Amino acid sequence: MTVEKLKSGHHTGETECNYIVWIAYSGLGNRILTLASAFLHALLTNRVLLVDRGKDISDLFCEPFPETSWLLPLDFPLNQFNRFDKKSPEGYGNMLKRNVISNTTSTLPPFLYLHLAHDSDDQDKLFFCDQEQSLLQKIPWLIMKTDEYFVPALFLISSFEQELSNLFPSKDTVFHHLGRYLFHPSNVVWGLITRYYGAYLADADERVGIQIRTFESGTPPFQHVMDQVVACFLKEKLLPEVNRQEPIFTASRNRKSKAVLITSLNSGYFDKIRNMYWENPTMTGETVRVYQPSNEVRQQTENNIHDRKAWAEIYLLSLTDVLITSSRSTFGYVAQSLGGLKPWILHKPENHTTPDPPCSRAMSMEPCFHAPPSLDCKARTWTDTGALVPHIRHCEDVSWGLKLV
Ligand code: GDP
Fold first, then answer.
1. What ipTM was estimated for this complex?
2. Would you say the pTM of this structure is higher than 0.95?
3. What number does the ligand 1 atom closest to the CA of 330 have?
4. pLDDT score recorded for residue 12
């Protein structure tokens, strides 16, 4: 019946069920974070979450809910999701701009498109206000396209406050719980994870993950990033110093082994770190072995095999004991949060120069929302949304971003 309303283009009165449709958009880390955000919004507003399968969602994840599917049926009438973008006339922000929708409009549309992406404007971001949420509550179908982990901003909506605090007594564990509840690697990906873990990581005394993602111009590997990674793990004592003077060094009887899991699109960083621990003994006597599952050279989103490896690597990073991540990367955010880890974040280099300090510890395991709203919904004035409540702060790696702590 709700689908009939969608086809007719009109909508009045109640519907049996309300839905939110998540559109597959952007890289895998982004997709995982946004799916969790959409799910939480659906939970808070009593909607059923349906998932646009894109090219490979069903290949990567098991169905999370027993005996039912979250995948949108293939014959769903509105399946040309690519046509929705910032300029779409069905966009909620655009409708507000044209004054064609408000709390007093008598005939509401059966669906609205929500553009909650990095390029959303202030009108789109009114989504994060109580008043607008009460209007959206009357629309049976919400179609959402986002590449943002918008959960922190849901915590700014006062009508969600009580339920959120019931659901998450510890506010810095939201993605940790949602992620572990929703995202189960499919069997093919689980095979990649378990074989790799068993072969290279399981029997080490400690596992150290290093996620290296660069957003710089030029051809990687970059020497300044290499220097930064080494400076970070030495300064923070996550891996031992090496003795470059003596070929064999047995000062200590420490027989501990550390396995280092590097993930990167490039193999250059791995080569250098592995050689560092092959060519020189460690000062502590510890054994350091270094691995990198893949080096895919470039992002190939929605290529099945590529995305399987990306998902397996995210998951493997989450199984490490100590984690170093690259700033601003959702790939790293998912790994840290699934793993319940507060990573050391490699600061973003400026002008191809190694930052000093090279890295610092995250405040919490939560991902950062990179494009948050900055409106005080009640006063309708601009405000610093990172200073309103103690559990929402600006992020370590994106000064204007918001994260739960
Ligand atoms: P972000 O761009 O760092 O926020 O992370 P996303 O996961 O959204 O997009 C980056 C995409 O590039 C990933 O999904 C992968 O497709 C690819 N990618 C980036 N880094 C790695 C890596 O270390 N290993 C693999 N296998 N793929 C990567």
1. 0.99
2. yes
3. 4
4. 61
